[in-house]
Specification:
The chain is of the alpha+beta class. The protein contains 19 helices and seven strands. The chain starts with 5 loop residues before the first strand and ends in a 10-residue tail after the last helix.
């Protein structure tokens, strides 16, 4: 045991000169010890002259044996790669490794390369959703050009999601097999071509073809982003990192709808699609030059790499990536079913608003196109803020302060989805202002839950299976994305009202909440397949 007069020596502790801590009040017997913090490849250093007092009440025992006691000292941020070495005079050297503990690194002292990657992925999602919303903004212009009916427009709105959904499972498997970078480069090129194809379309058939191709190109985006975040971020930062790309889906509608609407009004619908094609091509170039996995990134410092690894990031396992967890194995997991069902209910409401909100404001509240796109931006801007601040920053902040991580994620995931039920308020709204208020609350709650949902695949999946699990999850959500525009089109066409369309979305949300609560449960990691 540690005896009176033992001294704690700290090397590589982020301060100069390195401090030592006398331990004068420990009532313990046994051989004299000293404790050193140093890079693992170096030999123990001699004692240092500087001293710093620490009361024994702040020492926490974490390991003990008949010959040795190990302590944790909550004192200073440590510079990597550091270890705590507990060494006793007279003990065999090979016993020292049995009580070696890696030092805790503080996020404030670590470089921020990983956040640059999160911003890059966020820009990609922003471009994705510019490509998606430009069609809903162009509805009246396409009707005038091609004579598209309300029901046919519903099919056209969902056409993108058909190929997008079909390719979710294959894209997840490809991501796990070939990696985020290779698959991402191909997909960004494809969706850029699709945007230019829409601008050049000469008929309804060409528009359908361009939307099918857009779905092919963008299919790997969200599973790939979830996989990249799993590689690049420790668990306690993953909600904010996920929110940085997920919130862009909302911000794209907040700023994209009015910008694309103004482009349409002044330059015509073809320039609307051409503009998104140019932005897509820019992102393709940026992704090619800047994205790498942590093990391949030459700009990533050893300090940050060690911090990411210590925080529980998904390990890169190239041998495991050749097969990953079998698809059938993941489909049999109850937690996967609960996650997929809950997120599908979220995506139904999300796509109802994404594709039909301008039309709802126009038809129900008689708002002209210019004002409709301005009104539309309000709930989407609120949703983007909620996504970042609640689903991202607040979740990570509470977890880093010691709150139960599972409870925090459960409350935000289930509570946010439940807030989506106020969509029924929009169904009864009598003014556009009232409608925008209720839709903002509903979208804000759903958006707070969204980054938590997208962070779960990297938290629960077996090694090198995040892409596959993300593909399963997104396949189910895209079935909802296909259904929402079509079902809404039929309901509105048959009833000449959006009331029952909103009621159907609310009913699905109740089912999704049950999936989160009773199937996903405590979000425990899925065991590795045997």
């Amino acid at each position: 045991m540690l005896s009176n007069g033992s001294t704690l020596f700290l090397k590589n502790a982020g301060v100069s000169p390195p401090p030592t801590i006398p331990i004068p009040e420990l009532s313990a017997t046994g051989p004299t010890r000293w404790v050193g913090i140093l890079p693992s490849h170096q030999s123990p250093p001699p004692p240092f002259p500087s001293r710093l007092t620490l009361k024994p009440s702040k020492l926490q025992t974490i390991f003990s044996s008949p010959n040795l006691q190990t302590i944790v000292v909550p004192l200073l941020p440590l510079s990597p790669p550091s270890f705590l070495h507990y060494i006793s005079r007279g003990m065999p050297a090979d016993q020292n490794d049995s009580v070696k503990q890696r030092a805790n690194l503080q996020a404030s002292s670590v470089p921020k390369r990983r956040w640059g990657i999160a911003m890059l992925l966020g820009f990609g999602v922003l471009v994705n959703y510019f490509d998606r919303v430009n069609l809903s903004v162009s509805r009246d212009a396409l009707h005038a050009t091609f004579g598209i009916s309300t029901v046919m427009f519903g099919y056209l709105l969902s056409a993108y999601n058909w190929t997008y959904a079909v390719l979710q499972l294959p894209s997840g498997l490809l991501l796990d097999r070939f990696g985020v970078r290779r698959v991402g480069i191909v997909s960004t090129i494809v969706w850029s071509v699709a945007s230019f194809g829409a601008a050049l379309s000469t008929g309804i058939g060409g528009m359908f073809a361009s939307r099918f191709l857009l779905g092919v190109g963008e299919a790997p985006t969200f599973p790939g982003n979830a996989k990249a975040i799993g590689y690049w971020f420790p668990e306690k930062e993953r909600s904010l990192a996920t929110a940085m790309f997920d919130s862009m889906a909302k911000l794209a509608s907040a700023i994209g709808v009015p910008l694309l609407g103004l482009t349409l009004l002044y330059f015509g619908w073809r320039w609307n699609f051409a503009a998104t094609g140019v932005i897509s091509a820019v992102y393709s170039v940026l992704f090619y030059f800047f994205y790498r996995n942590p093990s391949e990134d030459k700009l990533l410092t050893d300090t940050e790499r060690e911090f990411i690894k210590q925080g529980g990031a998904q390990p890169e396992d190239r041998a495991r990536a050749a097969k990953g967890a079998p698809l059938g194995y993941l489909l049999r997991q109850r937690r996967v079913c609960g996650l997929a069902l809950g997120f599908a209910s979220y995506n139904y409401s999300f796509y109802l608003f994404l594709t039909w909100l301008p039309e709802y404001l126009s038809e129900t509240h008689h708002v002209d196109l210019l004002h409709a796109v301005l009104y539309t931006s309000v709930p989407w801007l609120f949703a983007a803020i909620s996504d970042l601040l609640i689903g991202g920053w607040l979740v990570d902040s509470l977890i880093q302060r010691g709150w139960n991580a599972v409870r925090v994620r459960q409350v935000v995931l289930i509570g946010g989805t439940a807030l989506g039920l106020v969509i029924l308020g929009a169904a009864r709204a009598r003014t556009p202002f009232e409608a925008v208020f209720w839709i903002s609350i509903a979208l804000g709650g759903l958006s707070a839950a969204s980054p938590v949902g997208w962070s779960i695949p990297s938290l629960i999946s077996p090694r090198e299976s995040v892409g596959t699990l993300g593909g399963i999850m997104n396949f189910c959500t895209q079935l909802s994305a296909i259904a929402a525009p079509i079902v809404t089109g039929y309901i509105v066409s048959g009833t000449h009202s959006f009331f029952w369309a909103f009621a159907a979305a609310a009913a699905f949300l109740v089912v999704g909440i049950a999936g989160y609560a009773f199937l996903l449960g405590n979000m425990a990691p899925i065991p590795e397949p045997t």
